[in-house]
Amino acid sequence: MGKKKPTTSAKSSVKKQIRKGNNYRKFIALGLVIVVIFITGYLLLGNKANKDNGVKTSNTENSIKIKKEEISSTAKFYPYESDGIKMEVLAVKANDGTIRTALNTCQVCYPSGRGYYIQDGDELECQNCGNRFQLDMIEVIKGGCNPVPVLDENKTDDGTDIIIDNAFLDENRDLFKNWKSE
After folding, report:
1. pLDDT at 151 over 90
2. Whose CA is closest to 146, among 133, 130, 128, 129?
3. Residue 179's CB: how many other CB atoms inside 10 A?
4. Which residue in 179, 4, 181, 182 sits closest to 85, CA to CA?
5. Alpha helix locations (H) across the chain?
6. Which of the residues 35, 70, 78, 95 has an alpha carbon 20 to 30 A from that of 46?
7. Measured distance CA(143)–CA(109) in Å, rounded
8. pLDDT tens column, 109-124
């Protein structure tokens, strides 16, 4: 008793089944690759867009917005958070009526954790070294023991608000790594 040879139609039916199986496997493999890409992207980028870090700030999605009408000769502080690092911008009206802005950290003392300023009269006092800095000198003097200025190229004045872009703040977050950590 010999084996029966498969007929031509049986051969083509088997080939169709094999092709269907291969197509199904390719479809499943493609689906898995897409899922892996999405999971990897999520893990690498995180869900930063929906992150609520609990810090109440005056910043919008892409900037800190400072209402000019709220600024006086008493410094006002605006908290900001960048990748878990707490930061602060200060704004104050100088004697000439201009609004001066700076990062509330000292260009020299920031590594100490106490290189930030509090206002005393018409001066800011570094909480690390005690250096006193005239409010009218914010944005005028750069370098040394004074607040890091937010210069015109890093902010926009639309007449009503001063807007400081997050990119500038994020670039300077390392100045705040030890900030207010006694």
Report:
1. yes
2. 133
3. 21
4. 179
5. 8-45, 166-171
6. 78
7. 11
8. 999 999 999 999 999 9
Q: Residue 34 and residue 163: Cα distance in Å, rounded?
A: 40
**Strands 99-106, 85-93: pairing kind:** antiparallel
Q: Could you report how far apart the first and last alpha carbons of the chain are, in Å? A: 95
Q: What is the dihedral of CA 57, 60, 64, 66, to 10 degrees?
A: -90
Measured between alpha carbons, how far is 108 from 46 in angstroms, rounded to an integer?
34
Architecture of domain 63-176: 3-layer Sandwich (2.102)
Question: Residue 111 in contact with residue 179, Cβ under 8 Å?
Answer: no
- How many angstroms separate the CA atoms of 1 and 38, rounded? 58
Instruction: Give the CA radius of gyration of the chain.
Output: 30
pTM of the predicted model, to two decimals?
Answer: 0.65
Q: What's the whole-number mean pLDDT along residues 22-26? A: 69
Residue positions counted in the chain: 182
pLDDT in tens, 55-88: 334 444 557 999 999 999 999 999 999 999 999 9
